[in-house]
Predict the structure.
Amino acid sequence: MAILTIFGAMALFLSSVVAQNCTALTPKAPLKLAEGYTAELILNGLNIPRDIVFDTAGNLLVSEQGGAGIRRVVLTETDGKVCVASSAQLIDDNTLNHGIAFSQDGKTLFVSNMASVFAYPYDAEAGTVGTKKTLIEGMRSGGHITRTLLTPASAPDILVVSRGSDGNIDNTTTDVEAGKSIIKTFSITELLASTAAANFATGGEVLGWGLRNSVGLGEDPSTGGIWSVENSADDIHRSGVDLHNDNPAEELNYHGLIKDANNPLKGKNYGYPACFSAWQTTNIPENTGITIGSQFGGIAGTPFENVTARQSMEDVDDFCRTERQGPSLVFPAHTAPLDVKFKEDGSAAIVAFHGSWDRTPPDGFRLGKIKFADGQPVANVSDTTAVEYIVENQDNTKCPGSCFRPVGLAFDKKGRLFMTADESGELFVITGV
């Protein structure tokens, strides 16, 4: 695959973000692009930008995790080049840390912090919000703090909320009623009409659980299928062997059609904390039957860690493969996928691999493209080449401190992909996708 290179120097960070007037900006870290793609930096100086979403007027809203709340970025176009006309704070709330979504009519903005989900009336033309209403609460915990939101076009009255585990290995999540490591759905109509906020653990319906930390949620517009990307565990051991550098795999998981009343995947358990997916199989002890993408157990500190004569490690692995829902695709360990978004025609999914500290050498820190057909990945679960990497760092050895780390993704109406990089405080537009 031919590679084009963008060389960049350290970008000047601004204490307050202002209009860029189509001035060419230099990325903080040198990037390399697959042939046929372009990446333009259109805004910098953002305060840990995370998830992003377009309003009905074509403005981009950015969730800033660095204590800034929600930012509204007004875009314009000059000779086919996307430019920032203005950028200003929309919601001043230093607890907001990731989640952001619009109702399908664009008149209600949903945002989240570690504990709660909120709704604001929103005027896209004026760029203003009304009075905040708390919709869901009861999610405060340690561990993973983001609460990702999705409002599927195929089910306009549904709000999807993803909550991760309380720590690396959270054995309380073996109980679905704990309301952790789980994706739930709520009726927007009921949430807005209620005088009291719903409790996350007891309210809503379970879409999937046994999901350690599914930060990225996406809908395939061509089918209405709901997908998530899973950040799996760190520092795992099995039978005294350290597996963590290449296991467990990160996952792409399918949750079916929310609009289908008979969705066979609704409520399925995807394995965590008892079962994990394999990326590299040769260093797994007692690995009979384990293949790339298959689930296995016996991880230290989890259920099934200690096996008995009546329950061999092979029995545990068989349970994980037959009694838990497996992934559709797997990715290298610790690449940390944080978002997944689909092309309008459903021909590809784009995944932001944020990258992780828990591997030598570092891995991730890149944007990947996965081919789809008929609502499913073209590749099978054991294919380690399913992802085409289209934007990468020129030098991953500088990661995570001095490289671009993609997070939020959003397509505009012209099919251009917008992407945040949180550590460098940047917003890019990518073409050729």
Q: What stands out?
A: The radius of gyration is 21 Å.
